[in-house]
Design a protein that fits this description.
It is built from twelve helices and seven strands. The chain has 348 residues and is mainly α. The protein has a domain of 208 residues: Transferase(Phosphotransferase) domain 1 (Transferase(Phosphotransferase), domain 1). The strands form three sheets. Strands 2-1-7 form a three-stranded antiparallel beta sheet. A two-stranded antiparallel ribbon has the order 3-6. A two-stranded antiparallel sheet has the order 4-5. Helix 3 crosses helix 5. The two termini are 28 Å apart.
Length: 348
């Protein structure tokens, strides 16, 4: 999914992303939708490209599952919910026990129980294998629930073998075994690995990337592909629902204005102002326009240089072209003053 805008107010940070109306895979499984092999094969390829991109950005998603794979109106898959994602660089390893238990790789539990070296990008590919298995067959390869202890899960992975559908093609079973390999060193965990799989030998990866392959399952455009009770949950159960925010903030401001000025309140307000000044508002449309304007400027300058006597380098590159890039946030020493008030670094 593409982030279009981001901004914040006194209470929340907001991110505006693409609207995907096809529902998530969990919803369709709950509606007893039977996904054919071609449909799931395309999901597998699209998620492979998604994980390859995340890996190039040093990101582990850590929560790949049907709930977090959304479909657009044409039936193409998109990965969402980076709530527990983490970044690792320069050979670093993650160690936190994070994820949804039925989809978490064995090395995550191993790292939690006995320490060890931690885990890396391979955990996402295990989760992808569990997800593909579930979407194809209707249940997961291991019977794991949130109540299972970590110790019991370690024993489960060492004693229980995955039972594959005998009707599946041999090449598909071979690929699933590679994704669901307990030892991460032997697991398929990259685009190059996936491209060597005989099951995917007929895939045009450029066409997958450009979404030129017709999806095997296209959601009905005349239906709502979500449970409306979840959409109403915030209005009913949330202690600070968004639809009452305007009234709530006005009340808070009025209450604060009536209070005597206190040094601590002033101090916290100053901290808030520092955070607000450091947070960069993002607008993809404005960025795109700047990039297009920069490109047009570069072409005009290149044409002008073409009329010279040839002594110049003729690159036609506009000066200050780097202005099109997002500016790096300047580090502010003011943030350090929040340390004595905030419970943790960066919580202001």
């Amino acid at each position: 999914m593409t982030r279009r805008y981001s901004f914040q107010d006194e209470e929340d940070m907001f991110m505006v992303v693409d609207l995907l109306l096809g529902g998530d895979l969990r919803y369709h499984l709950q509606q007893n939708v039977h996904f054919n092999e071609d449909a799931v094969k395309l999901y597998l390829c699209e998620m492979t490209l998604a994980l390859d991109y995340l890996q190039s950005q040093h990101i582990i998603h850590r929560d790949i599952k049907p709930d977090n794979i959304l479909l657009d109106e044409q039936g193409h898959a998109h990965l969402t919910d980076f709530n527990i994602a983490t970044i690792i660089k320069d050979g670093e390893r993650a160690t936190a026990l994070a994820g949804t238990k039925p989809y978490m790789a064995p090395e995550i539990f191993q790292s939690f129980v006995s320490g060890g070296t931690g885990y890396a990008f391979e955990v996402d590919w295990w989760s992808l294998g569990v997800t593909v298995f579930e979407v194809l067959r209707g249940w997961r390869p291991y019977e794991i629930h949130a109540s299972n202890s970590v110790e019991s899960l370690m024993q489960l992975f060492s004693t229980v073998s995955v039972q594959y559908n005998t009707a599946w093609p041999k090449d598909l079973v071979h690929l699933m075994r590679k994704l669901l390999t307990v030892n991460p060193e032997h697991r398929f965990s990259s685009l190059s690995h996936m491209q060597t799989a005989p099951y995917l030998s007929d895939i045009n990866w450029d066409a997958v990337y450009e979404k030129k392959i017709d999806a095997g399952f296209v959601p009905n455009k005349g239906r709502l592909h979500c449970d409306p009770t979840f959409e109403l949950e915030e209005m009913i159960l949330e202690s600070r629902p968004l639809h009452k925010k305007k009234k709530r903030l006005a009340k808070n401001r009025s209450r604060e204005a009536s209070k005597d000025s206190q040094s601590e309140n002033d101090y916290l307000q100053e901290c808030l102002e520092v955070v607000q000044s450091e947070f960069m508002i993002f607008n993809r449309e404005k960025l795109k326009k700047r990039q297009e304007a920069g490109a047009e400027g570069g072409e005009s300058e290149g044409a002008a240089e073409g009329g010279d006597d040839g002594d110049g380098d003729g690159s036609g590159e506009a000066e200050g072209g780097t202005e099109d890039e997002d500016p790096e946030p300047e580090s502010s020493s003011k943030l350090s003053m929040c340390g004595s008030v905030c419970s943790s670094p960066g919580s202001c």
